[in-house]
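hey m, so remember when u said the tokens were messed up on ur end? i reran from scratch. heres the input so u can diff it against urs
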Amino acid sequence: MDRLSALDASFFYAESENTPMHVGSVAVFDGPAPTYGDVVRLILSKLPKVPRYRQRVRPVPMQLGRPVWVDDPHFQILYHVRHTAVPRPGSDEQLRNLAGRVLGQRLDMAKPLWELWLVEGLADDKWALISKVHHCMVDGVAGTDLMQLMFDLDPDAKHEAPQDWTPRRTPSSLTVVQQAVNDTITHPLQQLTSMPSVGSAVRAAKGLAGQSRTLAQTVPSLAKQAVTPTARSLNGPIGPHRRWAWTDGRFEEFKAVRTALGGTVNDVVLTAITGGFRDLLQGRGELTSERLVVRSMVPVSVRRPDQKGALNNQVSAVFVDLPVGIADPVERLGAIRGQMDEYKKTMGAVDANSIIAMGNYVAPTLLSMGVRAVMQAGQMWCQAVTTNVPGPRVPLYVLGKRMLSATAYVPIAGGTRCSIGIFSYLNTMTFGINADFDGYPDVDVLSGGIRRGIEQLLAIAQKQSDKSSTSPAAAPAPATAATPAKAATPAKAATPAKDAAKPAKRPAKKAAASR
């Protein structure tokens, strides 16, 4: 009987009627589509490697402990693997609308928390898989899930036959309570009992104090951001329905901008997203100040070079002000680059590991209340969530069919009505936009604006590259050794007044890109 970690429990507690806390994806494949039976058999062959997918979450009575994982005696694979189609020939818009409806629906919290939808009928004989899995099932360290196990690197890969499965006996309520009480008593002592010396105990105490300081140090940076005007209309109540859209860009585009204009690929990505929000707010008539920003929560890596290869994630969540009030894309890039550089220097971020570790010492009832309070606090602090998930740079296959594209789905909560999940695969980076149905009737303006932001930056980068390659400084100097005397004659030195009377030729004005 495994207990949810503090982090997993926080995702479980955050679930509500209007806040489904599952993550997901939409993957499109070359055709023809496999049969529904083939997909079911493939899933059954992989389930022994991910036992969580046959388990459900069982809360502890009176919240005396964090919930536990128990086998579901009523598990039925046909409930979790679904089959549907769009009218042939299905367009991208039809797939987006279907995905928005499927991904916007809550999972049944009394069953194993996942679904997989086989979608047929797409144009050019293509097909898709829509996956949903609750955030509390996603392993933040190993990252192993069912979708990863479904993929093959070889189109001719063989799979094992499905195995019989017998669920373990469901524990009684008394057993669950007894185990929770036992864990509550013993957990704070585990760190001490496993320590070989008093010195280890002292180091552990210092580590816990350091985690507290890490959280406390974030308060000043958040207070500073509180005085910056934000696009408040992007916050508000979240309903039960979602709109979903996506756009994409090629790696070469982001790298070309980075090379010509500076910054990192991540800085360029955030600048393109800023352009999308600028278009959105312009369309709504809400772009009222040059200081206006859209505040986005962005996970960043703080892993040191000597920590490469470590299993645990070294990730922080920072609040980045996307400067939608700035018209010039290059200035927007500079503003974002400055923020990200400053975060890296000052470490003004909330270390996810600190939050997880602190949560292990918090009573389950307080943890549940705290999670909901933090979710509501998000309405005041940020207007969007942006997360970048690096994917494979090699082709992937399911049942011998090559995956053409994949788009991530990130949940929204706490009055933050929009999330953008960025996923890279092969040479493409996709932007999956999940938005509240009532709050974002113009979600297509945001997706189109992101694409336009990429194209704007790319055009400026191309002009900069062309200018550098054709500038006189870059061209080889003409041969003048044959006429040194003429070149050395200061012919106009005697008439400075005449030269001074001539007006200087003005340099051509740089075209200002406005949004």
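this time it looks ok to me. The CA atoms of residues 82 and 129 lie 10 Å apart. if urs says something different then somethings off w ur setup not the seq
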